[in-house]
């Protein structure tokens, strides 16, 4: 099946993943387009106004691009489990003058209605969703506005739901991916299925074009995913040290640190399963963290922000996929063109 990306001028089937929290800058999105691919602005954790400003910045460069949103998929935290966890991590936060014991439970939709209104009133070429599947009328409205709709899935069952809702393309995310899992059932950590096998399972279940994601950091890995039936691939971790990425200084240093030898899947920072480099915080609190996104994200956020400012890599979320050793400090165009080779 022809990929909808072809009509957008995407001649190299390598996309730059949306990495919320800072790494995915407008400059990184533009660089992906300059490499004949496509980049995504990360709408997560932003207001609609902040996202609109970044859309305007990328549009001014005259390139195709996408926007990613966290779709609502409520996973309320147990209040008592939340309080126990706050007490457990309190000493870590206190080191930076942050009082997590005074924090209340925050359950929000990440400005979802405002961002959907923005994307319908000022359509962009591509919109992708993760964490949840929007209601079918939302997808239909975006498609009617001329937007290609992409949905992240982690299993063939999720792929069937996304196809039935009307998604044009599916990002098939394997467990090797860095950052948050896009699973629709975050209380259950997805099985560790190799991407090639997962692509095959999803291909048997649905017809929309597939985009492979998870652990893709070398030209050989990219080629294998394309041979397995992916119309394109999306890469994130391998771009974290790129010149254009907004990755923080301690995060960059950790990715290059030869002493960092392992990634783990943890709920310790946000209450939702995510793959990260091991650090002191994941070692101490992964087994204690309850499920509950975004409550834990808001609980630990001030501590993580303060730790990043202090160049402390042990109290920040070092999201990274299994291919993190291949992340290099150079331009994104060079990285993406090498992957395409």
From TrEMBL:
Top-rank taxon of the source lineage equals Bacteria
Keyword set for this entry?
A: Detoxification, Flavoprotein, FMN, Monooxygenase, Oxidoreductase, Signal
Give a GO molecular function annotation for the protein. monooxygenase activity
The reaction(s) catalysed by this protein are: 3 propionate 3-nitronate + 3 O2 + H2O = 3 3-oxopropanoate + 2 nitrate + nitrite + H2O2 + 3 H(+)
Q: Where does the UniProt annotation place the signal sequence?
A: 1-16
Cofactor annotation: FMN
Which family is annotated?
Belongs to the nitronate monooxygenase family. NMO class I subfamily.
Protein name per UniProt? Propionate 3-nitronate monooxygenase
């Amino acid at each position: 099946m022809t990929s909808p990306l072809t009509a957008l001028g995407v001649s190299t089937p390598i996309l730059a993943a949306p990495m919320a929290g800072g790494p995915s800058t407008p400059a990184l999105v533009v660089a992906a387009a300059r490499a004949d691919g496509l980049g995504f602005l990360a709408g997560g954790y932003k207001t609609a106004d902040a996202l609109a400003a970044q859309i305007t910045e990328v549009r001014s460069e005259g390139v195709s691009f996408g926007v990613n949103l966290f779709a609502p998929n409520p996973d309320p935290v147990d209040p008592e489990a939340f309080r126990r966890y706050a007490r457990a991590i309190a000493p870590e936060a206190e080191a930076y003058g942050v009082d997590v014991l005074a924090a209340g439970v925050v359950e929000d939709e990440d400005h979802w209605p405002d961002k959907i209104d923005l994307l319908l009133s000022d359509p962009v070429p591509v919109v992708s969703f993760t964490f949840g599947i929007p209601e079918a009328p939302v997808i239909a409205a975006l498609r009617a506005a001329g937007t290609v709709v992409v949905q992240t899935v982690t299993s063939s069952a999720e792929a069937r739901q996304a196809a039935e809702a009307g998604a044009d393309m599916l990002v098939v995310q394997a467990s090797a991916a860095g950052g948050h899992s896009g699973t629709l059932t975050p209380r259950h950590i997805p099985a560790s299925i190799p991407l090639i096998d997962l692509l095959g399972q999803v291909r048997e279940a649905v017809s929309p074009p597939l985009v492979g994601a998870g652990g893709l950091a070398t030209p050989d890995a990219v080629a294998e995913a394309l041979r397995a039936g992916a119309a394109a691939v999306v890469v994130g971790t391998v771009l974290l040290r790129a010149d254009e990425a907004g990755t923080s200084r301690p995060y960059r240093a950790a990715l290059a640190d030869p002493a960092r030898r392992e990634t783990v899947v943890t709920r310790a920072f946000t209450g939702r399963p995510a793959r990260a480099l091991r650090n002191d915080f994941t070692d101490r609190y992964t087994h204690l963290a309850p499920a509950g996104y975004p409550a834990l994200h808001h609980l630990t956020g001030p501590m993580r922000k303060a730790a990043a400012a202090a160049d402390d890599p042990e109290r920040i979320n070092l999201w990274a996929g299994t291919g993190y050793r291949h992340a290099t400090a150079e331009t994104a165009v060079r990285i993406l063109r090498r992957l395409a080779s």
